[in-house]
Description:
The chain has 894 residues and is mainly alpha-helical. 65% of the residues lie in helices and 6% in strands.
Amino acid sequence: xxxxxxxxxxxxxxxxxxxxxxxxxxxxxxxxxxxxxxxxxxxxxxxxxxxxxxxxxxxxxxxxxxxxxxxxxxxxxxxxxxxxxxxxxxxxxxxxxxxxxxxxxxxxxxxxxxxxxxxxxxxxxxxxxxxxxxxxxxxxxxxxxxxxxxxxxxxxxxxxxxxxxxxxxxxxxxxxxxxxxxxxxxxxxxxxxxxxxxxxxxxxxxxxxxxxxxxxxxxxxxxxxxxxxxxxxxxxxxxxxxxxxxxxxxxxxxxxxxxxxxxxxxxxxxxxxxxxxxxxxxxxxxxxxxxxxxxxxxxxxxxxxxxxxxxxxxxxxxxxxxxxxxxxxxxxxxxxxxxxxxxxxxxxxxxxxxxxxxxxxxxxxxxxxxxxxxxxxxxxxxxxxxxxxxxxxxxxxxxxxxxxxxxxxxxxxxxxxxxxxxxxxxxxxxxxxxxxxxxxxxxxxxxxxxxxxxxxxxxxxxxxxxxxxxxxxxxxxxxxxxxxxxxxxxxxxxxxxxxxxxxxxxxxxxxxxxxxxxxxxxxxxxxxxxxxxxxxxxxxxxxxxxxxxxxxxxxxxxxxxxxxxxxxxxxxxxxxxxxxxxxxxxxxxxxxxxxxxxxxxxxxxxxxxxxxxxxxxxxxxxxxxxxxxxxxxxxxxxxxxxxxxxxxxxxxxxxxxxxxxxxxxxxxxxxxxxxxxxxxxxxxxxxxxxxxxxxxxxxxxxxxxxxxxxxxxxxxxxxxxxxxxxxxxxxxxxxxxxxxxxxxxxxxxxxxxxxxxxxxxxxxxxxxxxxxxxxxxxxxxxxxxxxxxxxxxxxxxxxxxxxxxxxxxxxxxxxxxxxxxxxxxxxxxxxxxxxxxxxxxxxxxxxxxxxxxxxxxxxxxxxxxxxxxxxxxxxxxxxxxxxxxxxxxxxxxx
Length: 894
């Protein structure tokens, strides 16, 4: 972690100051902005760049204490005793001469911080220095406070340029955090910190310092993450109270009401407090007005002010504030959509009674916003108020997504006989079936329960909901033919509810992608996302659809669209703050990053998602994604040459295997051959990939079969898989599968020119890692054909592509490092460079010790080295011994 705080987001202003200081005709500059925005840091950075041989730098700070003393702020840079004079004009002249006299042939550069607090004489002297032109004065002022007239005249009369500093932008905050923490921050934590700090540099620094001291900000799986509520140590609280300043009782009441109300119209607030008091609070810069179309709302000046005010407000007064807010909103009709959530929240917090309809409406809105704690609180209140079944339809989702199995079982047992009509019977059946499938992993029981309930309900909407859930469960269980048939049956029903249609389209998309019909799958996903109703009642559907959307586009061969979809899903997840959405988006970003050759970035995204899964292993929904994340991590780590991490991850992935998640397990299976290749050699890895492809074919997972077959070709087994890949290329409408087939066919025939063409095609498609491998294959084919010039040319091109692949260490690319070595010799060299003995290498690769010994002597001769201690340097290989130092995912889970 860096000791100081990074200087970010102000380079343009810094350059402007430097140009102004370098111009003898410019007498100064004014830096204006709110407190904490970074004026002082900018000034210090500018002063640090001043040449001391040509300039005399002086800096002073005005305070409320010096404001009452003539020349009080400038006392540190003025003589202890000025000559006695009878008028202010001569006094100012003598003071200016004293300041300039110290410069002795150099230019005076004077920085004045908090110039709005200057006494009259100091302000007048600053004005005179600027007008005189013999010095450069940097004046820092609070934009929200009045300044003395001589200071404001500097920019009013255009004597100097005024630069108004704005808050730091989100990328600036991210850069500052990454540099200070010396590592990436997960997206949700970044969003929370960015919003809480509001881009104020001082608040950002204090918030992060407090989080680190309290261990609320921790590194999880190599990615920094804020866990829990904001931390307000005394230093931060004192800073906020100082910024708020002295308030009358009425002014404090205004701020407290704003802190509990959130954005509220001034007319509504004016019915609780006097409008004049609201105006006084605004004049002090403690609240601000936002125009939303024709509606005007008030906000507390800074998000942390609101949080601090809520923490300092006594309990009984807080209850009174929230009761008054609820009363006034109800009196005005509660017409806005968000009013139900606010009303329910205020009533519960105030301990006031509220009808079940208001509590249910609030709970539904909280669920739609994915605020699980608030949704649970309001739903439990509605349950206690008598809305048992409707409240249960929210509660079971909240409890299920937090893996609170015992509470969920108790809830369903309590209401199992409470249903009085088909709608309520359907709601309870969905809750029970979901629990059986995704919480208890008893898929067959869940499906049987749905079948039984279908015979008990007659209403078409209730039947449609159950049929939709059945289709999604079948798909997640890997039973794609049944899932597709169930989805098609439902889609043939006229006027089916939007949520049921969305679920059916999603289940069908799963089956289509699995079978390699990626274009049709994308169309089904578009229909799923366009269907009405799911966003409010089943937000998980959007998470699954967006993650699968990116995955399907990638398999279709449209990497650009897949990348955009992954980035969009990530941004939506950040805004929602839902960890399940975030984990799914991290999988998508990890996939597209690996496909584009950005392996280090791929590992970063997957570790971020894994950190979420690890944090929520027993208390949140992201744990459901752990096996997917680990499977993707295995492939990326293996392609980076990090065998130890890959091996550990695959063990945990296998332990996470669930019948309700078999939809995603082809991704885990595709990772295995890379571990086998690293441990036992390419030939073994290729055979393993062929075996996995055969298993996938048996389940009609043709898209993943194609991926496994291409991996076999990449590991040296092209001749055995090229034919089947050509068949799949004819059957599946995927540009990526067609490229796979072309690559394997060219490898089989050692056709260097075709391999070059495949490399160009993959490069154009954005699959940089595969393009680099195909170019390396072309170089090797040219070399074997005796075409040295072409071999050198394509090897150089392959090396250029590889240099953009962030440390990729796949077999084809490793050949570029030592083209004179055979694949077996290179494998043995890697293990020897990593510190393994001949006996250990022989055991790892199932060879005799003598064979290893002979291979190494041939390697030494070819490379011109005398022993294994020189191999790492010559071949640019890591010297770390496998299994002894590779980073293990934290917590021992991977």
